[in-house]
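Input:
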Amino acid sequence: MQGLELKLKERLQKLLDDGTVDCVIGWTKGEFIYDVTPAIFTKESGLDGFVYNSFCGANLSKYLVSQITSDKKFAVILKPCDTYSMNQLITEHRVNRENIYIIGVGCSGHIDIDKVKAQGVSGITNVIDNDNNIIINSIYGDSKIEKASVLLSKCQSCKGSELKISDEIIGEGIKTPTCDERFDGVKKLEAMTAEERFAFWKSELSKCIRCNACRNICPACTCRTCVFDNARSNVAAKANATEFEEKMFHIIRAFHVAGRCTDCGECSRVCPQSIPLHLLNRKFIKDINEFYGDYQAGEESNQRNPLVNFTESDIEATVISDKEGK
Amino acid sequence: MQEVKDFKPTIVAFCCNWCSYAGADLAGSSRLSYPADVKIIRVPCSGRVNPMFILKAFERGADGVIICGCHPGDCHYSTGNYYTRRRLALLYSMLDYMGIERGRTRVEWVSAAEGVKFSTVMNKFVEDIRALGECVKLGDIRCKD
Ligand code: SF4
Ligand code: SF4
Ligand code: SF4
Ligand code: FES
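Output:
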């Protein structure tokens, strides 16, 4: 991982120097090794403070949306999972591909600092990532932990190491983590009774503080005026006042990204209340696969979203209304 | 708890202007009965029904919501109902996944000539909702009387 940072920095400096790009979207150092923040670097500012480490889990593709009217050229660092979002943004004309230089990076999974701390480690001064284990230096000494046990949840259901779109690749050949079956969580819920499912969602969704972080981070949520910000929509952003609003917000958010959600995992990652939002998104993905054939949003650009498509022999909604069982 | 037989459900039926609303009209003029609990909302096409309409109907006290449109292939706007079919299949499946009784939501295709079908569909739906009872999982209690 340390080698990757050096390579990236060197290459990005070149790209800035030779004028291929005017800006770089990357990460900047924080006080601790694990609090890195997405940042824009320019030729003038230079790459001071640039960092790339095991905590750079955020998906940077969304930062390009606000640059669509800019005539500047941007370099952006994308991991394999982020490249799906990029394809989807291109499909939806939310970014200007000509002005973007994509550096694809190999990825062996990113670390969730909360999971590290939960293992009882504190006073962390440095983390060395060896791809299958990590060495943690702390003021109390060093310890070694298995990387698989502290991966971000989204990395535990990684879609693989293939970069779906890039202009160049750095860190080729790095293997992504092996992972669980993506729909296991959804299947578990489906196997419950309706009462159990209702209780599960009630307890999860009642934790929502309607901070809108899940929407703000989502690369599929790029509406100029989101319905949750539109005072005339009657559902504008405010704390959920009733149980109805709790459910409504989540159904509508997930529905708006149905067929467009690449399952990048960002919404669940940023939720301060740890609500498993991926279980909602993946339900739509699983249903789409089952009803209309396998579909992966962002697999390539310019695919047709199954929700703006149809066949004459599609299943009828009554199949769901009349379904037997729990 | 109300006795089931006294329970008068509130049913919202979104009917497209070109087929199902005309079907409802025909049912009326043919003196076919359907329960007065069904409140019809006319929409230009079944494709006009935004998922939020359905959720909002439940919020305001509906016990069941049914969407009626032209038969697939016969939509006045040629393909509107095909999109409706996909959208609502996914939405209903999601409501089911959240533990809301799946019988409370429905889609039926009723043409302008099918007054009889309209009346049968509505009678059956109202009966089903009566059996399910009041919708308590997806309403705002402040909106109930
Ligand atoms: S990020 Fe979590 S708490 Fe915030 S609005 Fe989304 S679900 Fe609710
Ligand atoms: S809904 Fe969540 S997983 Fe899907 S694209 Fe948006 S942030 Fe990513
Ligand atoms: S929640 Fe819906 S309206 Fe809001 S940004 Fe996402 S897709 Fe757009
Ligand atoms: S006009 Fe009847 S469904 Fe489109």
